[in-house]
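Observation: inputs received (chain + arginine).
Thought: call the complex predictor directly.
Action: predict_structure
Action Input:
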Amino acid sequence: MVNFKEEIAGLIARHVDGLELSEIQDMIEVPQDTKMGDYAFPCFRLAKLLRKAPPLIAKGIAEGIADSPLFEKVEQVNAYVNMFISKEVFVKDTLEEVLQQKDAFGRTDVGQGKTVIVEYSSPNIAKPFHIGHIRSTVIGNSIYKIYDALGYKVIRINHLGDYGTQFGKMICAYRHWGNKEDVIREPIKTLLHYYTKFHVEVEQHPELDDEAREIFAKLERGEKEEVELWQWFRDESLKEFTRVYDMLGITFDSYNGESFYSDKMPRFVKELEEKGLLKESQGAHVVDLEEYGLGTALITKSDGSTLYITRDIAAAVYRKETYDFYKNIYVVASQQNLHFQQWIQIVELLGYDWARDCVHVPFGLVSLEDGTMSTRHGRVVFLEDVLNKAVEKTREIIREKNPDASDEAVDETARIVGIGAVIFQELSNNRIKDYVFKWDKVLNFDGETGPYVQYTHARCASVLRRAGEEITAKAASLQDVDYSCLRSESAYELVKLLYKFPDVVVDAGQRYEPSIVTRHIVDMAQGFNRFYHDEHILTDNEQEKITKVALVIAAKTAIKNGLELLGMKAPEKM
Ligand code: ARG
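Observation:
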């Protein structure tokens, strides 16, 4: 696409001596108020250089560049040169870009040659995959898609919580009260039940604790029976998680979780010791981070066993050595802020100069309308149930709207829209904010929701069906178009939104904030609907019709590509 700032800088440079092209480009502004033009050039800073009053300078520049075909109009207002881009040039350029790029529109290559790791989801084995996990899972998946679109090579890691003393307890409980068939039938609920029972029983029988500790020690030493049981729990849990990932259309490149690092930690405990960073405290080993305002971090317990934080240190170094990442991104709840600050600080103290390339991307809490979500109070809401419910509720709505559609078609649409609705809602708010999950809001077809945006996409598709293949094909290749047909305000505003889309993706990537994309998709959908209502698209004038249909194709493309970045599908019919 034409980089307007660059073009304008080139024109201005011919009338200003003594400034670099890049300096001029940096000075060009985009006015808040479109009455001041699409671009503006303030001349205050030139007064000294040119020994002239700023308004005079502005006047000279305005007159000098006014006859470029790039502009519709150039005005001097006080010290500013206000430039109005020729609508036709702008529309032509944008439509050409979108229709040529198609699925690739919005993709760039800023990340070419660089590897980025995105770690997300990372649930704990044998624990429920509950509604709280949706955040890391869906935000992480979108960040992966955004970085992929920016041209980075992305490695997706699910850092499973599959290690720790709780597995000693679980195996112990299974041996006392367990039953194989139950685990196979309902792995997570059953294992959770054993775990809870262990905590009840241990009150009466404290010796269970020693037994569990002994089992964990055997697991750490790699003894066959314990490892087999642990592996089985892990496999069964992963099967259950995978059902949810499949529903969401999410995959990973690696499931190396905490257990993967169990034999990689001694090296770091030694490095910490050699660097004099490790202190003994009641038999345990800690790193004192008081001078950084980060308290103390427990590295090994008094019985020598390592902790969550030690595994994160080992994992970061392993990833650097394996993938040589440019950035190592962790999509993990803000409750773990201190944990991340601590271990990143420790990695830095160990002398790894890439420590600050590890980025914690935190997010706030999700709660349900009827009270907060809590595992501790037994009010666990399984994510799978939420997704199923969303699909079911959507099926009713879709059925009502399409009484004649086949069951298959309704099922398919209900899946795309129901799951999409949950994903969209998740990515609508600034990630750091806490939010309340409300069914009415999620499934509303008219609000700023997933169904609304998907419906808009389906509406674009429906316009193309009505236009017919011949017109659509001509529009797609921009044959026989007349860009002056898109001068109306609603058409032009829509084109502007499309033009902005690639920058929005870059911005969302830089800020690790998918909601920036979500909001822009809503803007584009609203922009399209305004155009749809204001204008007669399928007019009798063929050239006008083709041109307007071209804009419909462009809007449809951008909305679809946007949804793809959120991990959502764009239905052709709804
Ligand atoms: N399993 C952890 C949990 O459920 C999240 C893991 C986050 N990732 C990490 N590298 N520490 O709380």
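Thought: report the result.
Final Answer: The pocket of arginine is lined by residues 119, 122-124, 159, 161, 312, 330, 332 (CB under 6 Å). The mean pLDDT is 94.
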